[in-house]
Amino acid sequence: SYTESTCPNVLDPILSSAHSGGISVVAASGNFGFTNGIAFPACARNVISVGATYNKNVGPNYRWPLPSGYCIDNITGAGVFACFTNRASNLDLVAPGAFVTSVALGGGFFENSGTSMAAPHVAAAILLLKQAYPYLTPSNIETILSSSGTSVRDPATRLVFKEINVANALRQVSNSYIHNNHRPPVYLPP
């Protein structure tokens, strides 16, 4: 569990180079239920850290096993914070990560949960923003995803995090074009 001040800086030169080169780096915050920090490298500078929300309602009082016991979510449902998420004030974004269906190695599908299931949602949102607006920097993208996101309150810390909303993010950038009397670029699929 790391805060901004205790986060190891061993990757800082590489992450800084990626950031200045226009590459957004996304990392899962971890699944130990920490309320005072997040995992490494999610805590590092120039990394977008991602926690998890529920993708669907699985009923009240859902128990998640943790190394130190259990955490219990009294309420579940789409957009509800998942208690297993490592979090503190240095958590940047949240995305669906509880009960996400994905492709399985070797074919087929499987359902899994964790901040590692949430982080790819943010990576995909970044790709969509970059496809539509290639000039966006990693800092622009993080700001857009945060400011266009839906507020999600963590009952344990009483902190409010932003869950990504890709449609709102794209609309926000498009509206800024229109507001500045520019025509937004149109990208049609091949």
**Low-confidence runs (pLDDT<50, min 5 residues)?**
186-190
User: Taking Cα atoms only, what radius of gyration do you get, to the nearest Å?
Assistant: 17 Å
Euclidean distance between termini CA atoms: 44 Å
Largest sheet: 3 strands, parallel
Percent strand equals 15-25%
Oligomer: single chain
Shape annotation:
globular
Would you tell me the overall average pLDDT?
A: 93
Helix content: 25-40%
Number of strands: 9
Order of helices and strands: HEEEEEEEHHEEH
Side-by-side strand order of the widest sheet: 1-2-5
In DSSP terms (H or I, runs of 4 or more residues), the helix count works out at 4
List keywords for this structure.
190 residues, two-stranded antiparallel sheet, 9 strands, 27% helix, alpha/beta, globular, three-stranded parallel sheet, 4 helices, disordered C terminus
